[in-house]
Amino acid sequence: MTQQYPIGTPGKPWKDAEKKEWFEQQRKQRDYSNDVIRRIDHLREQFDVETYGELNYDGRSFPLFVVRSRNWHVDRPTVLVTGGVHGYETSGVHGALYFLETEAVNHLSRFNILVAPCISPWGYETINRWNPDAVDPNRSFVEDSPAQETALIMNYLAKHKIAPCVHVDLHETTDTDNSEFRPALAARNGTTNDNWNIPDGFYLVADSSRQEPEFQRAIIETVKPVTHIAPPDDSGCLIGAPMVQEGVIEYDARPLGLCMGMTDAKFVTTTEVYPDSPNTNPVECVDAQVAAVRGALEYAAGKC
């Protein structure tokens, strides 16, 4: 199904005027300070909290935070958890925070833990996939990144020589992917949009260049008691990609500029939950994200 977007001319990529028109239509719908920073501040008693940068958009400042193990050991394997690369994907942000509030303490004796709970705070507030420049942060984890959001977290990891063994990137696939974000992408690029079937349930996107099928399977098995796993469509696919095992598809992360491709972690995955399913709810979606991280760490313990 194709859908014409209300900004721009079909077949012609956006220029600065169209991007400005798009930006001016965006509105704040929730509060980063109250929803995210407040919870991060409550973690300071148990973890170290660092500001790794600041975004300044439309006269507003958005400080960026990582939360990390207080007793960092250079000889201990490191786990990186990222959330809110796409700011609109709510359970990614709140799953990262809830992992820190509940589950992380159980793994501090085996891993250094580093969590970036909300990489795209403007996207969180405006419920957007893109940043204000109409750039998708999760296609921008590349050298000389066009997105400040991605450049700042990549610079932080490089500056501190952080080389994680495990990286779990927390995402969602929502109905708005078809109603808003894919049509907007096609309009911005001057191409034709073809919507995909939204998978009903949890699934993983693995990196095809670092195939660790047992790692992916362990996460799926840990999530199963929490929420349902997405079945394949009639073509055996999820979001247009062949399902390589139950609940798992693969992308080649680095050429696509995906967050899961920004490190050389041996064990890497991107989670996807479907919050619009009639078979789940917001609490279950957050719990599924935490279960995914737990499954990843339980599998990787002793293997890094």
Automatic annotation (TrEMBL):
Report if keyword Hydrolase is assigned: yes
Name of this protein: Peptidase
The record's annotation in CDD domains points to: M14_REP34-like
* The keyword NADP is assigned to this record: no
User: Can you give the residue ranges of the Peptidase M14 domain?
Assistant: 28-304
Gene3D superfamilies, A to Z? Zn peptidases
UniProt-listed Pfam families:
AstE_AspA_cat
